[in-house]
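Sequence, please.
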């Protein structure tokens, strides 16, 4: 088992290494698996939201540990398909920023909802993330490769959040909630242009 302090430090360094709000439409190439894999790891908003989903799933435990991240990735891909099909969707960027704040608050407040309610909340925000990325993806094999890379890379911050949540939840449950509050603060900072 990885010590909690080392895991937290790794998560903080990973979040500090990413660029804010660049994992969206029209930034960089969108036609290869590698580009798709690297894209979500380059945006502070996406990384923070995904880590928070993992933390929240770990705090809930049980089926949420796999159901919530799986719901995010599945609905995100559905949103990407809508974006690739040029289906208009209002409030995409505000929805993404709201997801960072909302997921952070769900962790910070240790909100205990039924797994199905968590799936609904996570899915609501996941469609915004997916749509934002799907609108910039070409409708060809390269676009599908890009989305496969993006989906696989999205699982990594979920796993970091789950690992941190399980480790912290057992040893230092309050620290997981502090991490959630930090996620919410990052989201608010991004929304107001402070971060």
């Amino acid at each position: 088992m990885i010590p909690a302090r080392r895991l937290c430090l790794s998560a903080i360094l990973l979040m500090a290494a990413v660029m804010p709000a660049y994992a969206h439409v029209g930034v960089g190439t969108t036609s290869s698996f590698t580009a798709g894999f690297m894209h979500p790891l380059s945006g502070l908003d996406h990384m923070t939201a995904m880590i928070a989903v993992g933390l929240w799933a770990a705090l809930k435990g049980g089926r949420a540990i796999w159901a919530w991240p799986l719901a995010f990735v599945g609905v995100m891909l559905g949103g990407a398909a809508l974006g690739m099909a040029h289906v208009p969707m209002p409030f995409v960027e505000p929805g993404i920023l709201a997801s960072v704040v909302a997921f952070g608050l769900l962790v910070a407040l240790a909100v205990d909802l039924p797994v199905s309610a968590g799936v609904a909340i996570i899915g609501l925000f996941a469609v915004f993330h997916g749509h934002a990325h799907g609108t910039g993806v070409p409708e060809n094999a390269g676009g599908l490769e890009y989305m496969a890379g993006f989906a696989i890379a999205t699982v990594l911050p979920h796993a970091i959040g789950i690992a941190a949540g399980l480790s912290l939840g057992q040893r230092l449950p309050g620290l997981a909630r502090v991490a959630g509050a930090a996620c919410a603060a990052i989201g608010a900072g991004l929304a107001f242009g402070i971060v």
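Residues 4-191 form one domain.
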